[in-house]
Design goal:
The complex is a heterodimer of chains A (148) and B (420). With 148 residues, chain A is of the alpha/beta class. Chain A has helices spanning 19-31, 44-51, 77-86, 104-112, 125-142, and strands at 10-15, 36-41, 65-68, 95-99, 117-120. Helices cover 39% and strands 17% of the residues of chain A. Chain A has a 5-stranded parallel beta sheet with strand order 2-1-3-4-5, with helices on both faces. Chain B folds into 4 domains: 2-68; 71-170, PAS domain (Beta-Lactamase, 2-Layer Sandwich), CATH 3.30.450; 190-260; 267-419, 2-Layer Sandwich (Heat Shock Protein 90), CATH 3.30.565. Chain B contains 12 helices and 12 strands. The chains are: A alpha/beta (148), B alpha+beta (420).
Chain lengths: 148, 420
């Protein structure tokens, strides 16, 4: 197993309300090479609390990358994205939109709100595993992220 | 006689004078008779003329009366004060008043509130006519009857306005048909949008659970194939296959329903650019099949650039998919015809039996077995929907083994013509 360029464990925050998708992402990551820790927030409110280390998330790690679903209970992914990108402390964290929506409108709005990339969840397992591996490979091995 | 003449000269002179006088008298009489007969002829012809005039006036009066009487439209003559001077039988029947109740009445009383006949008259003074104003009249028993009112100003020889002739046509039936039609159109639009909404929601919301079924049966197969028994392997394989096919169909359905909810307003769209982009998208497919794709100079049309891209892509990909054994050629042409652009995507592929020429545009209709030529059978339905949303028509001309030519029409670029 390799880790990111700092040699430490990579921190990923998955914001996803569907346990099936959470598990699938975990399974896909098992197949990846990265030593990672996947934290899960099941709605937008929880995600923001995690990122701002509020309440029970006081000790939450700062994620290296955020995987964000768009359709979420309480506060939806679009609002979460806008808040992250408007927050000077959080806006540098890459946000990968991982959603089942293929709607052009969602794609445009996401990039307008400074999403770092937009991925439609593939329906096929192998493709899904590929996507998760690619995200890991790209954001933790290819891309140079700010040291912080 | 000479004796007589010779015997009395005085008497002869008297006789001469007498005879001369007689002659003059006769002459005068003749002249008188002649003149008076001419006068009487003139008088007679005058008399005759007058009689003819009288007859013709009477005839034309009854002629006009007859016309007015047999007119289905109600006719009303009003003076410059808006007072009714004359009505025809149809007006009497429609309004339910007696003739004497109408004559002398203000025409304004007969129309629904808000319709001022005098002001209509004033308006029409400018161009002397009112054309088909939809309003309604109130009958004696208080019913409102929808009419289409036309009118025309009457002027005397000096050009002074004498009044107006109003013709009102009962349009109750037309109005009713129109209302029914409007209601049906609304109903149709509603049920259409409901259906589209349903298709979208169904395909979109079904995707989530289906993705779970497909992914987890695949995961089962991946992790446990060969670890359970042969039956289990077979069962899992069927589940995976079913889920995969269903996913493909639902994706296709979603795509189709997205076309229905037209997102963008039409704008001037350069088909040349769309064609270029399509070929870039299809590069892999074109290279793999060795297809030679050519095109005419393509026009700028009014449309949705995304949808038109999809249309070109589906048709060219379709041509590649249904290629025959020989070298495939695909040509995209366009010509202006009957006020729109007619496009043609022509190939030399396997062609289609004309018997199925309509069926191929119906959703999920496939002419080939599942293993034969891959696809969901939705591509051409999407093409049809896109073309119809653009107010056009799509059809195919083909024979088996003789290639196929898909034609579709698109609107002309209005922006361009309005600038010209």
């Amino acid at each position: 197993m390799s880790s990111n360029s700092n040699g430490s464990l990579v921190e990923i925050l998955l914001v996803e309300d569907n346990p099936g998708d959470v598990r699938l992402t975990q399974e896909a990551m098992k197949e990846g090479k990265m030593r990672n820790r996947l934290s899960v927030a099941v709605d937008g409110v929880e995600a923001m609390a995690f990122l701002r280390q509020e309440g029970k998330y006081a000790d939450a790690p700062r994620p290296d990358v955020i995987l964000l679903d768009l359709n979420l209970p309480k506060k939806d992914g679009r609002a979460v994205l806008a808040e992250i990108k408007a927050d000077p402390d959080l806006k540098r964290i890459p946000v990968v939109i991982l959603t089942s929506s293929k709607a052009e409108e969602d794609i445009l709005n996401s990039y307008d709100s400074h999403a770092n990339c937009y991925i439609t969840k593939p329906g096929d397992l192998e493709q899904f595993i590929d996507v998760v591996k690619s995200v890991e490979g790209f954001w933790f091995q290819i891309v140079k992220l700010p040291k912080e | 006689m000479p004796d007589l003449v010779g015997a009395s000269d005085g008497i002869g002179t008297q006789v001469k004078t007498y005879l001369f006088g007689l002659f003059v008298l006769v002459l005068l009489f003749c002249l008188y008779v002649l003149q008076s007969s001419a006068q009487s002829r003139k008088l007679r012809s005058q008399l005759l003329e007058t009689r003819e005039d009288l007859i013709s006036t009477t005839v034309s009066k009854s002629y006009v009366d007859n016309i007015l009487k047999s007119m289905a439209e109600t006719l009303m003559v009003i003076d410059t004060d808006g007072t009714i001077q004359r009505v025809n039988q149809a007006a009497i029947s429609l309004l339910g008043y007696e003739r004497h109740e109408l004559i002398g009445r203000s025409a304004g009383d007969l129309f629904e509130e808000g319709v001022d006949v005098l002001s209509l008259l004033k308006q029409s003074e400018l161009n002397d006519v009112i054309r088909r104003v939809d309003t309604s009249v109130v009958t004696k028993d208080g019913r409102h009857v929808a009419v289409s009112l036309s009118g025309s100003v009457m002027r005397d020889e000096d050009g002074e306005i004498q009044g107006m002739v109003c013709v009102a046509q009962d349009i109750t039936e037309r109005k009713r048909t129109q209302e029914i039609l409007e209601r049906q159109t609304q109903e149709l639009a509603r049920s259409n949008s409901e259906l589209e909404q349903f298709a979208w929601v169904a395909s979109h919301d079904l995707q989530e659970p289906l993705r779970m079924v497909a992914s987890y049966t695949q995961l089962l197969s991946k992790r446990y194939k060969g670890k359970l028994d042969a039956d289990a392997d077979e069962f899992i394989a069927f589940a995976v296959d079913g889920a995969t096919r269903m996913r493909r169909l639902i994706n296709a359905l979603l795509e189709l329903s997205r076309v229905g909810t037209r997102g963008k307003d039409f704008e001037a769209t350069d088909c040349e650019a769309i064609y270029d982009r399509t070929l870039v998208n299809l590069q892999g497919l074109v290279e793999e099949s060795g297809a030679v794709v050519t095109h005419d100079r393509l026009p700028t049309v009014m449309g949705d650039v995304t949808q038109l891209g999809q249309l070109f892509q589906n048709l060219i990909a379709n041509a590649i998919k249904f290629r025959g054994d020989e070298q495939l050629t695909v040509h995209v042409g366009a010509e202006q015809r009957n006020g729109h652009w007619e496009f043609c995507v022509r190939d030399n592929g396997i062609g289609i039996d004309p018997e199925y020429a309509e069926r191929i545009f119906v959703v999920f209709q496939r002419l080939h077995g599942k293993g034969d030529r891959p696809g969901t059978g939705i591509g051409l339905s999407i093409c049809k929907k896109i073309v119809e949303l653009h107010g056009g028509r799509i059809w195919v001309k083909s024979q088996p083994d003789e290639g196929a030519a898909f034609y579709f029409t698109l609107p002309l670029n209005e922006e361009k013509s309005s600038h010209e």
